[in-house]
Amino acid sequence: MADNKKIDLTEETARRWLTERGVQIKDIAELVFYLQEKYHENLQIEDCVANVERVLSKREVQNAIITGIQLDMLAEKGMLEEPLQSIIGTDESLYGVDEILAFSIVNVYGSIGFTNYGYIDKQKPGILARLNDKSTGECHTFLDDIVGAIAAAASSRLAHRAAGVDRKD
Ligand code: MG
């Protein structure tokens, strides 16, 4: 991120909550590397970090992050009303709103993000395996989809730029 860029409250909160919930930029960059390694010779982790940073700078992404993490945090504290408390607290598989929220991130750099998202959601490499570990007592019903979606969007941006598609954002 550019040094002279002013970080507002929404972006600051989104970034801080990711960290506080155990997700580092590098964890997401490693997912991007996992998705894109086979398509780009000499792909560097720094390229993946840079693309994750660009995704995180978008307001619609920040909004999805703070909304999803807020619900996870409230569920973890048992502070939601029923039936939502049980649904989110147990990560009920047919709920689906966590994935719908993540779609608002997946698509910011074009529809190939969907392919990446579906793939990584099935494979659950790296940080995604930890976020899906139900034995920790933590609630990451929304966060796992958000992290997968950020990685998918960053992969999409990286692929577009590698293909020489002129995108200014
Ligand atoms: Mg989920």
From TrEMBL:
GO BP term (any one): lipid metabolic process
Pfam families xref list: PgpA
Cross-referenced Gene3D superfamilies: PgpA-like
InterPro entries the record matches: PgpA-like_sf, Put_PGPase, YutG/PgpA
Domain YutG/PgpA: from-to ranges: 28-160
Molecular function as annotated in GO: phosphatidylglycerophosphatase activity
The protein's name: Phosphatidylglycerophosphatase A
Organism: Neobacillus mesonae
